[in-house]
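User: Please work through this fold.
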Amino acid sequence: MKNASNETMPWLKIKGYVSHIAVEIILSDAKVKVTRWNATLDFEKGMAIEPAVPDSFYRKVYYHFNTIFCCINYGNIILFDELHGKFEHCQIHARECEHTVVLFANGNYFVLWGDQDFCRAYKCEDFHFLQGKLSMFMIIMACCRPKHEWLGFFHASAVCDGRNSPMILGNSGSGKSTALALLGSHGFTSIADDFVPMDAVTGNVYPFMTAISIKQKSIPVPSNRYIELDEATGYTMSFLETVCCMPFYQDLDNHHTCSKLLFIDYKDDGRFHLIPIPKIEAFQQPVSDSWLSGQARRAAQSIEWFASTETYQVVYNDVNGLVSSVKNVFNDEL
């Protein structure tokens, strides 16, 4: 099957707001010219207030990320339960740390400080933006690379076959994390869950250190393939939903190109299908909860990368259909 979304695009002009980013783009023959990119970036849209740091915390936890040591001060049990499970496999005993993160509640806001600097405050209903901002801070810290050296941070998962790392995208609850765990149990390498960093120099997708979060009510992941799931810690998070956090091996040197985007959705009673989707339809989806560089040069680079990708929609309701279709995508056998 030929990927219709990979065909040469006619002159096309999009003008307006696309997921909080004011953008005017001209795409022609896979070449991109960004004529305006005024960014109001999702991860940056918290209120710029600066409340004082509290004198005490619910829990202080020490972590080892790559070669860096970090201490996170959790202001209450909600923040601890929502966030610690994803990093529990990196926990270490108390020690001197190069970096310190402070998370606490102040009225109707959750507040983030990093290395004694106020980062941002987010309304409680925008908790996912706090998670994104924290993840940005942590990957920048772990890789010792400033924000301007990253092309973007995507609300997605990523899997690898040793050559290419397609992103798995979709709305919250669409089955991204479950799909990642299922593919990891069938010979693929899990790269990142829920947060995918992309390098600006090479355009490669990098691993991220969080565990895979599997909702208790998700379709079962074969425990004989993923023994870690039987031992995974359960946390009550996300509006009292129980989530099992399953760590997987990550090597920050294991980074690959991303030339395919899979927009995935699990439907218990749906028919399996994998079809190409138009670029314009696909473009608006990964941007909504992601951070893309607002620098003109990086913005043009982002659009050029996106224009070169193959974009597919995957609806699945069984493991075999998911695994076989992703293998076909890797092998260009569609």
Summary: Residues 59-144 form one domain. The chain has two domains: 59-144, 148-330. Residues 1-44 have pLDDT under 50 and may be disordered. Helices lie at 77-87, 127-143, 176-184, 227-231, 279-287, 296-308, 319-330.
